[in-house]
Every structure is written in C-alpha cells, then in structure tokens.
Amino acid sequence: MISLQKKWGQWPSYFLLFFVIFFPTTATAVFQKPDVIEKAPELSLFDLAGQKQNLSQYQGQVVLLHFWATWCSSCVQELSELQTLWEKLHNKGLVVIAVAEDSKKSVVAFVKKRPMTFPVWIDQYGKGLRSYKIKGFPTTYLIGRNGYQEGIAFGPRKWLDSLVFPKIEKLLAKP
C-alpha cells in the first residue's frame, strides 16, 4: 500500500492546514470515549496564587480538565462559555480546571483582562501536556466522580450546546 505522503507529497497536509485556517469551526459533538477507559493521570501543578494543586483533591466530583493557551484564538473564544458552564453547574459538583500552557506572567495578565472564577493552573513546562498526551489546543478531558476518564474533546466546543451540556449533566447525576 502506498502512503499518501509518498504518492502526493505534502499536499494532504497543506490542504488540511488550509482548511483549518480558512474554515474554522467549533465542534458541538459529544465527547469521544477514550480508547481505553482508565483512571485519569494524577496532575500536580501550581495555580495563579502559586499554591500547589492536585487533581486527586477533586475525587468525588466531575472534573472538566481543559488544556488551553493564551495565544490560541479558539481557546480564548470558548472561555466565556466555560465560565457560564462553571457558574451553572459548580453547585452540582462540576469542577472546571483550566490548565494554561503559558508562563505564569502571561496567564496572570490574561486573567486580569478576562476574569475566570474557576481554577486556573499553570503548566509552563508541559507536565500536563505529556501526562495527557495533548497534541493540540484546546483539548478537554471529562473525568467522572470515580476519577476515570469519561470523555475527551479535541478542539473547541460550544459548552452550552444541547448535545454537550446534557452529557455533563448526566454525568453529574451519577453517584
């Protein structure tokens, strides 16, 4: 079997890049199921106040672990919906954790302009990227109360969409 790269060179890659740049979309599909249902990797990072935070401290809650960057335009666009999602569901047990792949200085300046009331952790050196095998931004993991990965969202989402929001509510309803 001949690979596309051998047959057509770099054209498939260029076409995909062109399509993504000139026809950006926001996915509304429900989370993809992980290939293997497994416990979410432990993650220890610092928050904006410089306090060490651990993912395991949220055991028993549903966690939306959102990997993003201040320079990622689609990441920035969806943060307001994540804020609204947090406001609507944090009293039901949802924790939104935004893991920023930037320096603390950049993230603090960013958050001053766009306040977020959910936890923001700094992953300047890529510890979270490696643990969760992040290949692009934004990427979001939905973690159940039992600490197991329930779903993964690659790319931006409309978090209040009629396909996405009920999935999170359903998971919150589980003991």
Report on the architecture of this protein:
This protein is of the alpha/beta class. It has one domain: Glutaredoxin (3-Layer(aba) Sandwich). The protein has a seven-stranded mixed sheet with strand order 2-1-5-4-3-6-7. The N and C termini lie far apart (49 Å). 26% of the residues are buried. The N terminus is likely disordered.
What is the structure about, briefly put?
With 175 residues, this protein is α/β, with parallel strands linked by helices. The protein contains six helices and seven strands; from the N terminus they run ααβββαβαβαββα. The protein has one domain: Glutaredoxin (3-Layer(aba) Sandwich).
Keywords:
alpha/beta; 6 helices; 175 residues; seven-stranded mixed β-sheet; globular; Glutaredoxin
Sheet/helix structural class: alpha/beta
Overall outline: globular
Second rung of CATH, namely the architecture: 3-Layer(aba) Sandwich
Distance from N terminus to C terminus (CA atoms, Å) equals 49 Å
* Highest CATH level, the class: Alpha Beta
* SS element count, helices: 6
Q: Which percent bin holds the helix content?
A: 25-40%
In spatial order, strands of the major sheet run 2-1-5-4-3-6-7
Proportion of residues in extended strands: 15-25%
Low-confidence stretches are 1-8, 11-28
Instruction: Round the mean pLDDT to the nearest integer and report it.
Output: 85
Radius of gyration: 17 Å
Give the biggest sheet: 7 strands, mixed
Can you lay out the helices and strands and say which pair or pack?
Layout: H1 4-8, H2 11-22, E1 44-47, E2 52-54, E3 62-68, H3 73-89, E4 94-100, H4 104-113, E5 120-122, H5 127-131, E6 139-143, E7 149-154, H6 165-173
Parallel strand pairs: 3-4, 4-5
Antiparallel strand pairs: 1-2, 1-5, 3-6, 6-7
